[in-house]
Amino acid sequence: MNNLLPFLLGSIALLWIGQAIYRLWREWTYSLQGKTILLTGGSRGLGLVMARQLTQAGARLAICARDRDELLRATTELEQQGGEVLAIPCDLGDRLQVEQAIQQARDRFGKIDILINNAGAIQVGPIEEMNLEDYQEAMNIHFWAPLYTTLAVLPEMRQRQAGRIVNISSIGGKVSVPHLSPYCASKFALTGLSEGMRAELAKDGVKVTTVCPGLLRTGSQHNALFKGQHRQEYAWFSISDSLPFVSLSAERAARQIIAALRRGDAEIILSLPAQVATRFHGLFPGITANLLSWVNRLLPAPGGIGTNRALGKDSHSAWSPSWLTVLSDRAAQQNNQFAQEAEGDRAEMVAPKSQ
């Protein structure tokens, strides 16, 4: 009996060490050198940071985004670093454009080895100010776009019995957060799609990885859309994104995502707070819902610009930008988040289209 506990502890330690060695082996034995990667949303933020690291690893990139100027700036930077990059302007919510974009990538590089579905959009505000268009837009970019790209590359991957697909979901695809209803609903859809594909495509040699980041310092708050009391909404969102120990740098997140891609992991949840939140929600969903309902009481009430929308860069206040947001503001400068600055710093409200 006295020897049982040391034996159990030793066995657990050996299993943990064995698993760690196996993970490292899987990562080291999958080279990105010469691999062709289609990366959506690769012109700014997390996508651009991943693009930098992927080109440094020797991969050939096709990056997709809607903004041509943004793509040009990203491509110029990546090529100056020695990367082989094809920039493809594309509305990922349009299936025909997606298929044409993927054909352009094939024409340039041949086969597509890896697909990374990273493109995203964020709408922030109380549920009272969200309309059907907000949910449709979120589903288009977070669910339909990854489905379109996946369906377009799957035949060749299945034929080769090889391929990797990485879907960038979110902690919001595991735990629904107040004032982010369209975003969370669409990320839940992507998480379900990705997990289902992982199970069904394994037999075809295609490995699907679901990535669920927590708060990241990518500078994305400048291009997010805010509704209701948009300046207050922007303040809490941008400050949360910038807090050290709570948020993760885009560079560190990109390294972890690329490592998971190389290992062929089923899922990776980025940041300790996100991991804790996911596990707590899994064990205590009722308590989590109650806690989030109290968090919601602390967030801005409906009002302000109502169902109209303002970009983050048009929602500044005394609280943000400030010393509280310095890390995210620096990330925005580094990661091509100011694509529209040349047009002037106008505070234009965008009214939603009629349904």
From TrEMBL:
Which InterPro entries does its entry note?
KR_dom, NAD(P)-bd_dom_sf, Sc_DH/Rdtase_CS, SDR_fam
Q: Does the keyword Oxidoreductase apply?
A: yes
Domain Ketoreductase stretches? 35-219
Q: Which UniProt keywords apply?
A: Oxidoreductase
The UniProt record lists the keyword Membrane: no
GO terms of molecular function: oxidoreductase activity
GO cellular component, alphabetical, reads:
membrane
Q: Name one Pfam family in it.
A: adh_short
Please give the PANTHER family that the UniProt record associates with this protein. DEHYDROGENASE/REDUCTASE SDR FAMILY MEMBER 7B, DEHYDROGENASE_REDUCTASE SDR FAMILY MEMBER 7B
Which protein family is it in?
Belongs to the short-chain dehydrogenases/reductases (SDR) family.
The protein's name in its UniProt record: Ketoacyl reductase
